[in-house]
Amino acid sequence: MRDQAAGPRVLLKRLRELMAEALEPQERLDRIVREIAGNMVAEVCSLYVLRADAVLELYATEGLNPGSVHLAQLRLGQGLVGTIAASARPLNLSDAQLHPAFAYLPETGEEIYHSFLGVPVLRAGRTLGVLVVQNRTKRHYRDDELEALETTAMVIAEMIATGDLARLTRPGLELDLRRPASFSGLSFNEGVGLGHVVLHEPRIVVTNLFNEDTEEELRRLDEALGSLRLSIDDMLSRRDVAFEGEHRAVLEAYRMFANDRGWVRRLEEAVRNGLTAEAAVEKVQSDMRARMLHMTDPYMRERMSDFDDLANRLLRQLMGHGPEVLAAALPKDAVIVARSMGAAELLDYPRDKLRGLVLEDGAVTSHVVIVARAMGIPVAGQMKGAVSMAENGDAIIIDGDEGRIHLRPQPDVEAAYAEKVRFRARRQELYRELRNKPSKTKDGARVDLMMNAGLFVDLPQLAESGAAGIGLFRTELQFMVAATFPRAEAQEKLYRDVLDAAKGKPVTFRTIDIGGDKVLPYFKNSVNEENPALGWRAIRLTLDRPALLRTQIRALLKAAGGRELRVMLPMVTELGEIFQAREIIDREVRHLSRFAHDLPNILKLGAMIEVPALLFQLEELMRAVDFVSVGSNDLFQFVMATDRGNTQLSDRFDPLSVPFLRVLKQIVDAGKAMDTPVTLCGELAGKPISAMALVGLGYRSISMSPAAIGPVKAMLAELQLDRLEAFLTDALSRPDAGRNTREELAAFARENNIPI
Ligand code: PEP
Ligand code: MG
Q1: Residue 588 Cβ contacting ligand 1 at under 6 Å
Q2: Who surrounds ion ligand 2 at CB < 5 A?
Q3: How far is the CA of 516 from the centre of ligand 2 (A)?
Q4: Cα(216)–Cα(352) distance, rounded to whole angstroms?
Q5: Higher per-residue pLDDT: 392 or 677
Q6: Are 226 and 255 in contact (CB under 8 A)?
Q7: In this predicted model, which residue has the larger pLDDT, 113 or 324?
Q8: Rounded distance between C-alpha atoms, residue 578 and residue 572, angstroms
Q9: Quick one: how many helices (H) and strands (E) in the chain?
Q10: What confidence category does residue 391 fall into, taking pLDDT thresholds of 50, 70 and 90?
Q11: Ligand 2 centre from 413 Cα, in Å?
Q12: What is the number of the ligand 1 atom nearest to the C-alpha of 452?
């Protein structure tokens, strides 16, 4: 039998030689098309390259009129070449002129050719151009010839991507690869960042394209596929909770794909045609991705990203790459672009080099987003298609406020954003100047501005923000970013580090508040809850799993030895829950003192006011605890019967409406009457306008995200408290109680020159 792959192999060998020769780019292209035409016994071989203005320009030809090079052009979708580029699929025609899309370009002189074979030039699923061969006779090209041309197109894609052809573009025109692109998605964390793309999973660039020994490459491919399958089976057989549910489904899809005969056959064929095993993986993946990109079925597109991940795993097997290569050359203004990523992976990047995070998937509640927020970097999510359009090192703007990104931005877009960033920087400078000033109203009333935290990465903010302490330390975050329950020692270490970093400033630790929207992948509720926000969560859960609470309490008591310890219970509904928790604490104190441990010198127990039932027993509640803190996020959702995460309702009800302000006033008044300290630690505290309202109601301690402290302090400095109090007393006592006071408060601020 004739070795059908001999032709392509010889061709690839010739191309390799041409790539290595010191040639001008045009000369190299001319020789490449001549070589392809000769090898494929074609009278014509032409290369069209896609420009940023969606035009395919003839860059080189053997056989057509040489004068038409850089002149002949077709729009994307126009003619056979435009159709191939738009669909990312090859066309194999014995009589091209009969095809409905055929468009005649007189300058090329192609009318005498009948048969036509054209393939897209693809890289990572993007079409960069079209490669065509033609013959006079009406012949149908064989499958192996198609395969050979596709393989050759890969080499050309590499030339385009490495910028080799950029010098051939006419002034004012650009290749499509460099085209600016904007994406809209969701805002996951505010802020604006200008920087350069760092692909979290860098496209593994296969530089070694041509194989020396086909049998050896086939063996390598087979071996890598074998270890890939084994590693998937291994993960599947582990009865690890982390691989339950979603994870398991994905792994099962991987296993199916890894055993897909069609996929394996295409890989082997590419190797037989002269590619290395890794180049074969890239080629097959690129073809597949290009085709799937045109599918609208979301299920199929999702499967595509599974296939991509699988191909990447296979490439890593072949190239022996670990993730360490990615950290190697991080620009100082990195914007990480990822399909999705784990929280721990983000923490591996040095904070001082991060300017933003772009995710194709993810949700505002995903762990990586929680961590990114703690790190204070802008995050834009649901940016479908961003990964395949971005190249490492591309300029990028991330607009976390609007949930938008601009890749390779035009100079005017860049200038507008640079101005925005400078403006923010000036404001930050102002806030920094306020950092060491006391937080007081204009008429001298002191208000403690505390910060919310939950992770180790938050701690530097304590000094940077000028916070008076940590009003809410969300201990569950450590649990949420971990792969398994953090051990007692890890908990104790974090708490000790927090207290050390606080240098004597007060810190309020909230016991683990999981359940509701805060799920731990390794700890599933066996009951499928219909209303998780009203379900088994927070103190309810930890009282049912006392070992969890005991371990945490013990870790807290040990970490706070010789210092003050403030512990706060989330989602308290009945006072009995406080008594039960206190019993657990007392038992732990007794246990530790029996073993002569250093105990906290002061221990204060508080409760969060998040459940409306507590509003009807405020006196008893305040007698039962040392302090209370209003969790306005949950309290608002329960008072208004409005899911805090439902974007459809997010603008419908306002915490600055009269009924909710009355609730908040009732709590702070009860605190005064009972001499129990009251704070508030929901998002409400961090917006200058609502912080102003809280101070007007009587709150003298509020806790917020560290970035909010500067703006709230600046607001306070201009606030004449007696005026505001009079204004609010009037607003809350007037009979039209359904009103929203937001507009009136904003007008009050404007009239009194208060920056909100
Ligand atoms: C709240 O509910 O207001 C609160 C501070 O707790 P979390 O946002 O963590 O539920
Ligand atoms: Mg809450």
Answers
A1: no
A2: 631, 634
A3: 9
A4: 45
A5: 677
A6: no
A7: 113
A8: 7
A9: 27, 22
A10: confident
A11: 39
A12: 5
Residue 603 · residue 565 · CB < 8 Å: yes
pLDDT band, very low/low/confident/very high, at 749 (cuts 50, 70, 90):
very high
C-alpha 604 to ligand 2 mean position (Å): 20
Q: In what order do the strands lie in the sheet with 44-50?
A: 73-75, 55-62, 44-50, 126-135, 115-123, 91-93
- 570 CA to middle of ligand 2, Å? 7
**What does 163-187 look like in DSSP terms, one character per residue?**
TTTGGGSPTT--BGGG--EEEE-EE
Write the pLDDT tens digit of every residue in 206-253.
767 888 899 999 999 999 999 888 888 877 776 544 444 445 666 677
pLDDT band of 326, cuts 50, 70, 90: very low
C-beta neighbour count of 71 within 10 angstroms: 12
3-state percent helix, strand, coil for the chain, nearest multiple of 5:
50, 15, 35
Q: Is any atom of ligand 1 closer than 6 Å to the C-beta of 513?
A: yes
Question: Given this model, what pLDDT does residue 194 score?
Answer: 95
- For residue 524, the model assigns a pLDDT of 76
CB distance 632 to ligand 1 below 6 Å? yes
pTM of the model: 0.70
696 lines ligand 1 (CB under 6 A): no
DSSP-H helix ranges across 355-459 = 367-375, 386-389, 411-434
Render pLDDT for 39-84 as a digit per residue (tens, 0 to 9): 999 999 999 999 988 999 999 999 999 999 999 999 999 999 999 9
Instruction: Please tell me the number of the ligand nearest to residue 517's CA.
Output: 1
CB of 631 sitting under 6 A from ligand 1: yes
**Any ligand 1 atom below 6 A from CB of 191:** no
pLDDT in tens, 120-178: 998 877 889 999 999 999 999 998 889 889 988 988 888 887 777 878 888 878 787 77
> What is the rounded distance in angstroms from the CA atom of residue 694 to the CA atom of residue 696?
5
Is the shortest distance between the CB of 269 and ligand 1 below 6 Å? no
Which amino acid residue places its CA nearest to atom 1 of ligand 1? 631
3-state secondary structure 715-745: HHHCCCHHHHHHHHHHHHHCCCCCCECHHHH
Cα distance between the two ends of the chain: 82
How many Å lie between the centroid of ligand 1 and the Cα of residue 632? 7
Distance 568 CA to ligand 2 centre (A): 12
Nearest-angstrom CA–CA distance, 650 and 364: 14
Strand, helix or coil for residue 33: helix
